[in-house]
Amino acid sequence: MSLNGKVAIVTGGGSGIGRACSLQLADDRAGLSVWDLDAAGAAETVDRIEKAGGRAIACVGDAADARQIEESVVRTRSELGPSTILVNNAGITGFCGFRDIDEEAWDRMMRINLKGPFLCTQAVIGDMLAAGWGRIINISSSSAQTGAIAMAHYAASKGGVIGFTKALAMEYAARGITVNNIPPGFIDTPMLRSSPVDMEAAAAVAPMKRAGKPEDIAAACSYLASDVAGYVTGQTLSVNGGRYLV
Q1: How far apart are CA 71 and CA 230, in angstroms?
Q2: What is the Cα–Cα distance from 158 to 93, expressed in whole angstroms?
Q3: CATH architecture of 7-229
Q4: How far is Cα 175 from Cα 117, in angstroms, rounded to an integer?
Q5: pLDDT tens digits, residue range 206-246?
Q6: Res 193 pLDDT > 80
Q7: H-helix or E-strand containing 11?
Q8: Cα separation, 29 vs 38, whole angstroms
Q9: What is the pLDDT of residue 243?
Q10: Is the CB of residue 244 less than 8 Å from the CB of residue 144?
Q11: How many whole angstroms separate alpha carbon 95 and alpha carbon 198?
Q12: Active site members
């Protein structure tokens, strides 16, 4: 599916799902603006894209900080062109019993996981409106679909992303912009490996008896960014190996 001539922004593109989405969209021939707090991770993603013959830049900053977001948008527009694909992937996770979640932890989760996509989308959507074409792909979580023990703040933030997706889809459907979300389920990423989740035990009870790969999410992202998905909006495309069935 060719995205030749398009420019995509992927937040949290320095590792895991974000890196896989960046590499896939670059393989689809989009120019990539890879955003991440981790300068080395973003640079490695860009290096891999360029070695494969693609165009990419690394923007280092906080994807939940309005000033830094604007700086990255301006740089992307200057070096690659207007952005018409946005993958809101940057996020954090957390494991904490409900009664032990303090306001600071709650607010940080909401700022990064929910306010971040709001700010990034506001900063980029003008380019999409000017082009009469746009793709917004929000990475949510299957935890928002099923619930998750000791993750009330995380599940709530990702549930907000799903609601945010549906509202934007309705508002911009007639303007050539589609808005969809992908809730990953049990994907083998650095974030999952650093969590207290027992991967072997979780895999044993999963329908497919294995974890998913970041590339599984990237493939769904590629589809939603393409013209063949032009009549798909406001949808939750679950990529979870059967963990949650709609």
Answers
A1: 30
A2: 10
A3: 3-Layer(aba) Sandwich (3.40)
A4: 20
A5: 888 888 999 999 999 999 999 999 999 999 999 999 988 87
A6: no
A7: strand 7-11
A8: 24
A9: 86
A10: no
A11: 13
A12: 154
